[in-house]
Design brief:
single chain, alpha/beta, two-stranded antiparallel ribbon, 9 strands, globular
Length: 182
């Protein structure tokens, strides 16, 4: 699976750099195979609804016991999903550079007024320098103080950059998230 992931990542990078066209890189059956890999798979676990009944609510696997924390970039002004995570015993880490910190957050909820980025673009400046307005997912998780063995949940709504952010992570890091809601 890691080999396929690296191949897709390299393909994506070459296409973005306009080094080649899709027709030069892959046969139609290879493209279809790549698309099939990106489909959701049934895990035979019942689903529960978390969050409000409208925008911001999601169906998630009813397999949340033992998840230590939920990371939720792109939270916006509505955080009903994150409150449900807190009620299930998770620490909640929210990030969004487009909105101010909500007033009166309950204990166990943390807010970072930052955007997520895919890589470190300012190597001479520490990532927590708020003048940059952004942080990588891996740095954010590392700075939370959680243990490496802690199981996590990711709920991400970052206006179309979800897959870019996920593809920028190592397989080992992505596996820390037992549940991903994208």
């Amino acid at each position: 699976m890691a080999v396929q992931h690296n191949r897709l990542k390299n393909l994506r990078q070459r296409l973005q750099n306009q080094e080649v066209t899709p027709e030069e890189l892959a046969k139609p059956w290879e493209i279809h195979q790549a698309i099939r890999m990106m489909r959701p798979h049934d895990a035979d676990i019942p689903l529960i609804r978390m969050g409000p009944d409208s925008d911001g609510g999601y169906l998630v696997p009813d397999d949340l016991d033992g998840i230590k924390a939920c990371f939720s970039p792109g939270v916006g002004r509505q955080y009903g999903f994150e409150l449900d995570c807190l009620r299930k015993g998770m620490e909640v880490y929210m990030a969004d550079g487009s909105v101010p910190q909500p007033d009166d957050l309950p204990d166990g909820m943390h807010f970072l007024p930052r955007y997520l980025m895919t890589k470190v673009e300012f190597s001479d400046v520490h990532l927590t320098d708020y003048r940059k307005g952004s942080i990588t997912l891996k740095s954010w998780v590392s700075e939370s103080g959680l243990e490496e063995q802690d199981e996590l949940m990711l709920q991400m709504d970052v206006e179309g950059f979800e897959y870019d952010i996920l593809l920028a992570q190592s397989d080992t890091f992505r596996k820390r998230f037992r549940v991903m809601v994208v």
